[in-house]
Every structure is written in structure tokens, then in C-alpha cells.
Amino acid sequence: MIGNPKSHGFSRWVTAAAVTTGALVVLAACSSSKTKTTTSGSTSTSAPAGTSTTSSSASAIPATMFSTANVPGLGTVLVDARGRTVYLLTSGDHTNVPCEDSNGCTKVWPDLPLPAGVTGATAGLGVQPSLLSTMKSSGGETYPTYGGWLMYEYTGDTGPAQGHGQRIPSFGGTWYAISPTGNPVTATAASSTTPSSATGY
User: Fold this and answer.
1) DSSP-assigned letters across all residues of 15-65
2) What is the pLDDT of residues 105-144, one digit of tens each?
3) What does the alpha-carbon distance between residue 195 and residue 190 come to, in Å, rounded to a whole number?
């Protein structure tokens, strides 16, 4: 049987169309893949064009910002930019007791000096701006204060919403979290502990 020349032409047309369609599918898949990679590699999908998307929402908070948070066993207290509870060191008459590098205090209770060129801290949610101020050390460093109190973190707190430093007596005074009104918090954290490295001074 002699083949129909139209059928051969039709076959070639179908083959060409199939190849073209396949190429379009591959190109579409590649294009889709690139778009997906770009989206998944970005930490912010809502940032406008030209805005850096490499920083997380946490890193958008100024390092010098203080705000308030609810900490179990303490209630609403001051926290720093990392969300960690900040503490004050006071003697029995409720005055500042300095935490010094020289006696190892700041190794257990790190102080929070302002970065060079920064003149003050920022008031976040729940913080009264009028209570935020600064204090300069003899070495020239500037430290933020709240209600007149110098502020410190505690190495026994490994993350936000912890109050393990509450009521620990050490380094010439007792440590307390700070209330939004600028006063020592008198409640005791249920999970508060007193590591041996923080006592005996």
C-alpha cells in the first residue's frame, strides 16, 4: 500500500508540535523552579522591592530597645532586645549596687553598655520613655538605666521568658527583675535557681 503523503506530513507536524510543547513545559518548569528558590531563600516575602530581606523580624528590633514581656512567676517585667529578662542589683536600702568586672560579677550578670555612638536606649512596648536614661562609667562607657537602675542579663537565663535570676543574693546585694514602673519586682520565679557560681560574694 502506498502511504498517504498527507499522513506523513501530519505525523511530522504532530511530532514538531509535541517537541515544541515539551520545550515549553521544560521552560515553564525552569521558570517556576527559579521563582520558588528565590521565594524560599528570602526571609521576608512581604518586603517591597529594593528592601533587604536577609534580616529576620528579631534582628529588625534595635539592639538598644527595651520592652516588657510576661515572664512566668514574675508577671510583666522589662526585657532587652533579645527578649531576655533584665535585672537590677540592690542592697537592703534599695539603692544601686555596682556589678564590677574586677570581681567577676559581669561574667555571671553581663552588663549592657550602649554601642559606640549611641546616646540612649529605645523605649519599646510597655516601657515608659521618661524612665529610660543613661549612666557613664569611669571608663567612659555609657549604660542604659530604667528608673535610675542599671540593667543586667543573667547567664542562668538561656532564652526569653525566663526569670531564674530573681531574688538571688550575690555580689553585695540581691537581684530582682524590673517592673514597668521602674521598681524591683518582689515576686519569686517558680523556677528560680541559685547556681553556686553566683553566690558566695
Assistant:
1) HHHHHHHHHHHHHHHHHHHHHHHHHHH-S-SSPPTTS---S-TTTTS-TTE
2) 999 999 999 999 999 999 999 999 999 999 998 888 999 9
3) 15
CA distances for 118 relative to 65, 66, 73, 79, 136, angstroms? 12, 14, 33, 19, 12
For the entire predicted model, the pTM comes to: 0.65
* Closest CA relative to residue 131, chosen from 140, 143, 118, 144: 144
Of 89, 82, 104, the closest CA to residue 157 belongs to: 82
pLDDT tens digit sequence for 53-94: 333 344 456 789 999 999 999 999 999 999 999 999 998 777
Order the strands of the 142-146 sheet from edge to edge.
132-136, 142-146, 149-150
What are the domain boundaries of the chain?
A: 1-38, 65-198
